[in-house]
Amino acid sequence: MDTAFRPYRSVLYIPGSKERALDKARGLACDAIIFDLEDAVTPDAKGEARETLKAALAQDGYGERAKIIRINGLDTDWGADDVRVLKDAKAHAMLLPKVNSVADVEALDALMGETMDIWCMIETPLGVFNALEIAAHPRVKGFVAGTNDLAKELNCRNRADRLPMMFALQQMLLAARAYGVICVDGVYNQYLDEEGLAAECEQGRDLGFDGKTLIHPAQVEGANRAFAPSDAEVDLAKRQIAAHEEIEKTGQGVAVVDGKIVENLHVETAKKTLAKAEAIARMA
Ligand SMILES: CC(C)(COP(=O)(O)OP(=O)(O)OC[C@H]1O[C@@H](n2cnc3c(N)ncnc32)[C@H](O)[C@@H]1OP(=O)(O)O)[C@@H](O)C(=O)NCCC(=O)NCCSC(=O)C[C@H](O)C(=O)O
Ligand SMILES: [Mg+2]
Questions:
Q1: Is 20 in the same domain as 76?
Q2: Which residues form the HpcH/HpaI aldolase/citrate lyase domain (predicted)?
Q3: Ligand 1 pocket test: which of 150, 187, 216 has the largest number of ligand atoms within 8 Å of its C-beta?
Q4: What pTM, to 2 d.p., does this model score?
Q5: Is 70 known to sit in a ligand binding site?
Q6: What is the Cα–Cα distance from 205 to 199, expressed in whole angstroms?
């Protein structure tokens, strides 16, 4: 199933072991769900969580939300069984944690059927440096920044401006954009701090991320707001497209809107803004 042409403003992690949360998500306004079998599930609960998740996906009821299964690494005791049990589940993608190189993707590809896309957590130093070759793999359709693991690996301090991991975030974004791969920002751990989340979403949007991964339902609304085109952006996009169409009729290529030039490339961006707004409207 295709994971492109959808909004990914809010991508909510749900522990695969928590039946109540799996059920609650059916009524939440998130654009996508990551059903987690990795960090949110303790080792002794892995087998049961896998079966709980399989049953929840068979029951479905998640509507238009993109469904992404985060399995355990293939170098763990659980990864291969996760794939075996869930490869035919009704989901859009399988998310592989701690991807270091394209060889990790190839190993998953060899175990999976054809029905799901592959998404990759970029959260290790090697994963960051190899992001370009990972994004180039034809089955890879999404990247998720693992900012907790990145902070651990970097031994960096947790700063509001995320300066210590800026290189890594930008490198994964560039690689994703080079190959048309969706790229979603990491989580904001203080899940009840609305102001802090809003600031980090704003930064993520400024950088170019498609949306933010979330850990609690209270974060959904803030992410949806931050990553949707605003009314002013939609209005500007429409005016830019119209002004450029008009100027083209006169044989010229450069229009001016609100004192700023509008060329072909700006029209492309404006069209993307409208397409995103339409995709969001379809989610409602
Ligand atoms: C953070 C939590 C442990 C908080 O749980 P809890 O105290 O139970 O929250 P609330 O009582 O406020 O919950 C209120 C209701 O909302 C439901 N709920 C809670 N979380 C979720 C969720 N994620 N999805 C859906 N529904 C959720 C509760 O069931 C309550 O429902 P109800 O009883 O009907 O009112 C908890 O939120 C949690 O476990 N969050 C997910 C944590 C997680 O997935 N972590 C792993 C991903 S993060 C990561 O690994 C990132 C990456 O790899 C990296 O390196 O950075
Ligand atoms: Mg991680």
A1: yes
A2: 9-217
A3: 216
A4: 0.97
A5: yes
A6: 10
Q: Which of 213, 156, 205, 173 is nearest to 38 (CA)?
A: 213
In 194-263, alpha helices (H): 194-207, 220-227, 231-249
Would strands 10-15 and 211-214 be described as parallel, antiparallel, or unpaired? parallel
Predicted confidence (pLDDT) per residue in 187-229, tens digit: 999 999 999 999 999 999 999 999 999 999 999 999 999 999 9
ipTM computed for the complex: 0.98
Question: What are the CA-CA distances from residue 93 to residues 1, 21, 34, 129 (Å)?
Answer: 8, 20, 9, 23
pLDDT of residue 284: 77
Q: Atom 45 of ligand 1 has which residue's CA nearest to it?
A: 40
Q: Does the beta carbon of 186 sit less than 6 angstroms from any atom of ligand 1?
A: yes
Q: How far is CA 256 from the centre of its chain?
A: 34
Contacts of 126 (CB under 8 A, 6+ apart): 100, 101
Are 160 and 28 in the same domain? yes
Q: Looking at residues 6-17, what average pLDDT do you find?
A: 97
For tokens 């890594």, the residue is: 168
Q: Is 123 annotated as a binding residue?
A: yes
pLDDT at 1: 41
Residues 276, 206 share a domain: no
